[in-house]
Input
Amino acid sequence: MASLGDLKGVLKETLEQRGVLGDIKAKIRAEIFTALDNDTVGKPKISNENMIINEMIREYLEYNKYYNTLSVLTTETGQPAEPAFDREYLHKKFSMKSSKGDLPLFYEIIFGLKPELSSEFKNVMIDDYEEEE
Output
């Protein structure tokens, strides 16, 4: 008969192979933040600057499908569940030309600072896409 340690090991390995162990850990962290977050004390109001930064981080996390990290971010920061700003507002705020693409603003800012990175990024994305097929 298998020991408790053996069963734990098999369970952990199975969850890792299915790709759900990370999801479970992130959900547990988010629930812990929620449980420890004492609403009676109240969180300080999020400044406009932090709200904008958090929205840019949210957009980056959603784009890269880091949904578990996003759930922890919104829980811990008190960021509204729905985005507080749309892309057009942020483009205007940063005096950026509105792009038709769906790249997060972080990428657009970085590519604006270092335009040569844009072509390198696109080549990597094309290579990654071709490998998936």
